[in-house]
Amino acid sequence: MNRITDSRRLSAALAFLAGASTSLAFAPYALWPIYPLAIAFTLLLGRDHGPKAAFWHWLSFGFGAFVFGISWVHVSIDQFGGLPLVVSLTLMGLLALYLALYPALAGTLFARFKGTHQGFNLLGLFPALWILTEFLRGWMLTGFPWLWAGYSQTDGPLLPLAQVIGVQGIGLLVIMLAGAISLLFHRRPASLLFLLPSLSLSVYWADVSSTVARNGDTVKVALVQGNVAQSMKWQPEQLWPTMLKYMDLSRPHLDADIILWPEAAIPAPEHMVEDFLDNANRVANLNDSAIITGIISRQNQRWYNSLIVLGNHNAKHQDSPDYLSGGGNEFRKHHLLPIGEFVPFESLLRPLAPFFNLPMSSFNRGDYQQPNLKATGFSLAPAICYEIAFPEQLRLNVTPDTDLLLTVSNDAWFGTSNGPLQHMEIARMRSAELGRPLIRSTNNGVTAVVDEKGQITASLPQFETAVLNASIALVSGETWFAQWGHIPVQTLCALLFILALLNRQRAS
Q1: Are residue 119 and residue 224 in the same domain, yes or no?
Q2: Which of 59, 72, 314, 506 is 20 to 30 A off residue 79, Cα-Cα?
Q3: Per-residue pLDDT tens over the stretch 448-464
Q4: Do 165 and 284 fall within a single domain?
Q5: Whole domain around residue 352: which residue ranges?
Q6: Considering 385, 387, 425, 452, which one is annotated as catalytic?
Q7: Phi-psi region of 379 (alpha: psi -120 to 50; beta: other; left: phi over 0)
Q8: What mean pLDDT do residues 268-274 have?
């Protein structure tokens, strides 16, 4: 190990491979032990680095983690961007390099402010810096919180703790575990011997003391997966065939309380398809049902990626339907995807390539907090596509009366890559945090039902046209995370960093 760390190039290459290995900790592989082991290995490789060397060391780790972990981004750039392969690979590399700056920042600060007490350095300071820089990555430039450390535990033993401390709290424990493993090589096994039983007891306590319980009520849902080819979706001549396809798929399942269509299932502005919406509205009402669909809405010349509810809003049995264009009970996406849904500096970028002029790339933002959607008397907290990756936004839109979490997406942009599976993994974490069942309808997968503990109870195969029927048990109660969010975890991390600064000042 000493010979390796003395060679900076070899150390950086191994750090890159360690970062690359972390992609195996996330969907679809879910080999959760890899993440703390990779972090521990990288900590050992860089244990004697100063701030400058630590920056390059952890930049190598981060570049490996993201160039492999989010390689699915390149699928959309390559297949739909209209760019030469060299250019699309360069863009992908630049994105991975930008994201790698955040672990590089954590490593640099760690090398700069670590003290002489290895236990505090590896169990306190480094985990705190890692989570604070993850938070920063999820906020800067509208945020990209993909591959946070906590998501590696979606199929791991720490998932029950999500209802108490959320994904970032779990991430903090994962990095502490990595620090404890690295302390073994400093001949300090006591930290690991203490941490493992403590984590086991915490998981058991979180599971048995849950503040959420099933209340005996159920809701019957039908989730429609249209499997419309992305290359055809926005062709004008395909509008009516697409809408009729969703209506035909739904017709045998109109006995469901809620029928859910994917994001932009109706690929047109609301005012252009009034006849179709009026018909679907009356059909849903006559069958004591509600259809929730993605659509493009408009208000005062501002365009939104929206969800609307057709049919019965307030009760299962109604004499007449409630839907009116612009009449409320609509959700407008707030967290827009850069390039995909809005283009920064668009006057400069749009003329450069088709990649900067994708369909649906000129939206406005909806409000950060919006009322729950109402469908046949049930309350649903929505998130459209990318929004499900932002835990605090969804948390602030969930109330004690929320019955279900709802998310829709169109991951056809990413083909057969890991992207849609990672997206589903993130959605599962929101259920575990907020203690609510989740329904997810997508164009070509993954369409699924998730219970209040974050476990998939029913799903459809990807790339098939199908409808998923399910009866979902509803719950009552609020999780600790629903009440407090990530504030306690982030406060703890900030205090640990301040303590390190004070110790450093005292030592100097």
Answers
A1: no
A2: 59
A3: 999 999 999 999 999 99
A4: no
A5: 214-478
A6: 385
A7: beta
A8: 94
